[in-house]
Amino acid sequence: MMISKAMKKQLEGNSTIRLMFQEGKDMAKKVGAENVFDFSIGNPNVPAPKEVNESIKTIVDEVDSVYLHGYMANEGYPETRQAIAEHLNRRFGTSYGVGNILMIAGAAAGLNIALKALLDEGDEVITFRPYFLEYGNYVRNYGGVLRTVPTDKETFLPDMEELRSAISEKTKAVIINTPNNPTGAIYGEETLRELSSLLSEESRKYGTHIVLISDEPYRELCYDGLTQPWVAAFYPDTIVCYSFSKSLSLPGERIGYCVVPDELCCHEDIYSCMSIANRTLGMVNAPSLMQKVIERCIDTDISENVKAYDRNRKLLYGILKEAGFEAAYPQGAFYIWIKTPEGLTDQEFCNICKRHYVLIVPGSSFEGSGHMRAAYCVSEDTIRRSEQAWKDIASECGLR
Ligand code: PLP
Q1: Nearest 5°: phi and psi at 60?
Q2: Does the beta carbon of 108 sit less than 6 angstroms from any atom of ligand 1?
């Protein structure tokens, strides 16, 4: 066998979500796209704001081509980083400069370079289940070990005592994701204050600085008047990984940024290591044209996109409740975390859904058995037309 043992494992456990995405396409070929209700993947259905496409055209016309398409510093164009720093300062009252911002090829790349900069073989990283399962792969990429601790069964907020008992002298970092994929929970000020004081205490106890990695691709997708507090304001040793994949509907373009605040211990070294990691992991720098787009579109109003997801959220949640399912009412992101009906395994429930051409992802894909995730970043029409299928599924599950 030519492939590595580590990749062989990944090959065997290839992402269920990605496989379902393909399954949805195959089903659509067989029974017609209009008869398939694919709630499997977090691929935004709302188009990128018009400013994005317009700025692509003007940038190509206006910016010197050699500069635009050339190599650059691994951390990205200084003008783009300055625009992002100013945007954050306006929104969150911070005082970041170019030296705190590093351009990345999406949150996935940001998490990888942060972990590459921090981890030695055997170091531990903690996250809260259910969680975005790729975290495990990212941590293992650098010889680390991912440990998971539960969240509250109702609120899906971190269980602080479980976190405390999971921390040891091996703990290098804690990853949080708010607004959360898959539960839709938002970590508010109280949670962030508690988390911060716990991490400060435990860091003092072990004579270290446990780094909080805040994975924030859904930062703006908050509903019912809620907003995501600025996580780095609560805990000094924070690295923020942000992405425009969801907020500007650009997942294929691979663009985002990391914030490495001055308050983070050894921030200059960590920033330099992350910049080197951008190069040595092969991304080299974030896509140049997209950096220029972000520079121009950083203040774009996305409230219409958020409203569209909010309408979908209310609509799908209402349909699910009406059909008889139990689900947590999501506060943010674009997922609903549905309870698997009593007496069924996640896989059995998933198979019933598939028979009705409804695709949702089993909780095991998030280390959250007993639940399923439905992504509502689909057209309103798809949600409306799925109503009968949900009712039929509920009947087959004995809920009606
Ligand atoms: N983190 C979470 C929680 C996600 O849900 C995703 C994508 O769905 C990512 C990171 C990766 O996003 P990106 O496209 O920015 O790499």
Answers
A1: -60, -35
A2: yes
Q: Which two tokens stand for residue 155?
A: 């609120």
Q: Which residue has 């059995």 as its token pair? A: 348
At 271 the pLDDT is 98
* CA 367 / ligand 1 centre spacing (Å): 16
Encoding tokens for residue 232? Answer: 């780095």
Ligand 1 proximity of 365 Cβ (cutoff 6 Å): no
pLDDT of 400 strictly over 90: no
77: left (phi over 0), alpha (psi -120 to 50) or beta: beta
Q: For residues 394 and 400, what is the distance between their CA atoms, to the nearest angstrom?
A: 6
Atom of ligand 1 nearest to the CA of 132: 3
Residue-wise pLDDT for 344-357, tens only, equals 999 999 999 999 99
Cα 288 to its chain centre, rounded Å, is 22
Closest ligand 1 atom to Cα of 180: 3
pLDDT tens digits, one per residue of 53-78: 999 999 999 999 999 999 999 999 99
Band the pLDDT of 23: cuts 50, 70, 90. Answer: confident
Mean residue pLDDT of the chain comes to 96
Backbone phi, then psi, for 124, in 5-degree steps?
-110, 145
Contact 215, 107 (CB under 8 A): yes
Of the candidates 319, 325, 331, 307, the residue with the CA atom closest to the CA atom of residue 383 = 319
Residue 24: the pLDDT is 86
pLDDT in tens, 119-132: 999 999 999 999 99
Helical H runs in the chain? Answer: 5-12, 16-31, 50-62, 65-68, 78-92, 106-118, 134-141, 160-166, 189-206, 267-280, 288-297, 303-323, 346-355, 380-385, 387-396
What is the pTM for the complete model shown? 0.96
What are the backbone dihedrals phi and psi of residue 305, each rounded to the nearest 5 degrees, phi first?
A: -65, -45
Amino acid at 33: A
Is the distance from the beta carbon of residue 177 to the nearest atom of ligand 1 less than 6 Å?
yes
Q: Answer whether 44 contacts ligand 1 (Cβ < 6 A).
A: no
Cα 178 to ligand 1 centre (Å): 11
